[in-house]
Amino acid sequence: MASLTLKEIGKQFGKTVALSGVDLHVEDGEFCVLLGPSGCGKSTLLNVIAGLIPQDKGTVELDGHSVDRLTPRDRDVAMVFQSYALYPHMTVAKNLGFGLRMRGVPKATIRKKVLDTASLLGIDDLLNRKPRELSGGQRQRVAMGRALVRRPKLFLLDEPLSNLDARLRANVRLELKQLHSQIDTTIVYVTHDQVEAMTLGEKVVVMRDGEVRQTGRPETIYSFPTDTFVATFIGSPEMNLYRGTILRNGERPVFQGRGFSMDIGDLRPNRVEGEVEVGFRPEDVKIVETGTGTLHAKVEMVSDVGSEKYIHTRIGQEHLTLRAPKNTSFRPNEIINLAIDVTRLHIFQKGVRVD
Amino acid sequence: MSRERLQNCIIRSIRIAGIIFFVVIVAFPFYWMIASSLRPLEEILMNPANLGLDIHKIDLSAYYDVLFDHGFVRYILNSFYVSIITVALSVALATVGGYAVTRLRFRGQSFMSYSILIIYMFPAIVLVIPLYVIFSHMGLRDSINVLILVYLAQTLPVALYMLRSYFKTLPLEMENAGLIDGCTRFGVIWRIIIPLSAPALASVALYTFMIAWNEFLFAFMFLDTPDKFTLSRGVVQLAGSVHLSKQLVMAASVLVTLPILFLFLFFERYLVRGMTSGAMKD
């Protein structure tokens, strides 16, 4: 176990900037998730931490000591790859024990540790099989086991669940969370799946174009996104976000969007004016009785996800999505009245949060 | 008979005829070589057009003569020595070289990797005269070890090219897993790349062996002392001798061919594909 600190990490491939000025601190025993769309540099960052790709700028520290000059072997980290990358010519037992064997651990100890890890992951009956005889889920477990068996300072996981089918992925996600509390180790986990990030991470790092856009607890990132990218990237259905202007006609400020206007309350501490983007999440809009709402929307489509319904509507020239209980029913072209929780509004100016 | 069935029938007979035609073309010289080597000399001289082989008249004395009276035991040993050393060096050098140009980043990497093949563009006949002169001046010409050097220069480009193409297909993540698990670069090559490249290494070994075993031009130019002759050089020596007897030359030719045949049969099982299945997600 160890804490991890990244300082000003920069990396270029030719003229493409893969990482720039990445700072990050992961506490000892913390579960940190790097989240971002594909090509945002999260996997490159993981490879830099592992020592597989040398960075151009900055330092990687484990427990406060720079490991920049150490090879992957000497950094004492373990990695689970997206493709699992098992050794196809070795049995599961050999795959699990390979890292220990390379480090000169006595055979009896290797056997014991391999058995312990295999039973922890429930793969003890597969030890004599070759990877090609395993299912996807079993291969994934072997890949996890190969990392676990060494009890390294740091675990790096590169989209480890992305090749599993949806049901299995949910199960393994839960197990991974339990495993983390059992073995109490530092984990850096890369994913593009926000559900994975929100459920697993104690700390979530949202990345885009090689930069860290926001770091924080999942609920902080969800409730207080620092910019419009984070605001729309996190949350499903996506946050409703509108470009427009804030007008102050008398007492109450009003947001003027394309083809609609909206009361935004006067709770803002700093008096924002002019060009802004205003956003609110689909659950912060309520359908209300005729005459009491602040917005009138026309229903375009209803998608039923079982536990609830997503109502896709149109206000002015914009779209608005809201969540509604599963027993509600609306028909297209119906006009509904909406009330927005103004305390939950997100206001951005030039893409950055201002409230 | 419907038109379609007629068509199928015609296509099938053409295919069978084609196969028979090519089998005959390829197999007939072999058959004649083996048959001639097993017939007594008088019979060949009396009835040269006879293609049949009488089981009761099989005569192995030609092989005995070739092996022990004409020094072919020595030639066989020489050929094995040259070929095996060439294979060993070629496979070893091509493995590390091929790995370097596929995976490592260094200045001039792409130039290196393409210039490898340029050497191969020069035909042997262009090289043989200058090399003859150079090695003569250095006093190294009449030597089996110099032959190994020349064969290496001939086989290494293709060996490198073959292995480079194969290494490119191996997943990089597997090597990264090896590095993180605690291997050095050489450890990765030895414990992961080589076991997974068995089919490619077998092809390279087979190819190199065949080149070295069958090579004639350089052996003919460079070797003077009969003790140092390789098999192909020995056969020509035999064929050019005054008392040429056909069944001896044929027996010698069979001796040249057999090892390659057995080698093919032995290596064939390593040439199967799909060694890496199971490593990756699918």
Number of strand segments of chain B: 0
Shape of chain A: elongated
Shape of chain B: globular
The Rg value of chain B, from CA coordinates, equals: 24 Å
**Sheet with the most strands, sense and barrel status of chain A:** 6 strands, mixed
Strand content of chain A: 35-45%
Along the chain, the helix and strand elements of chain B come as HHHHHHHHHHHHH
Strand-and-helix sequence of chain A, N→C? EEEHEEHEHHHEHEHEEHHEEEEEEEEEEE
CA radius of gyration of chain A is 25 Å
Explain what the structure shows.
The complex is a heterodimer of chains A (355) and B (282). Chain A is built from nine helices and 21 strands. With 355 residues, chain A is an alpha+beta fold. Chain A has two domains: 4-233, P-loop containing nucleotide triphosphate hydrolases (Rossmann fold); 240-353, OB fold (Dihydrolipoamide Acetyltransferase, E2P) (Beta Barrel). In chain A, strand 20 and strand 21 form a beta hairpin. The longest helix of chain A has 18 residues, at 166-183. Chain A is elongated, with a radius of gyration of 25 Å. With 282 residues, chain B is mostly helical. Chain B has 13 helices and no strands. Chain B folds into two domains: 1-59; 61-276, MetI-like (MetI-like fold), CATH 1.10.3720.10. In chain B, helix 4 (72-103) packs parallel to helix 7 (144-169) and helix 5 crosses helix 7. Chain B has helices spanning 3-38, 41-46, 61-69, 72-103, 109-121, 124-138, 144-169, 172-180, 185-196, 198-214, 217-222, 231-239, 246-267. At the A-B interface, strand 6, helix 3 and helix 5 of A face helix 8 and helix 9 of B.
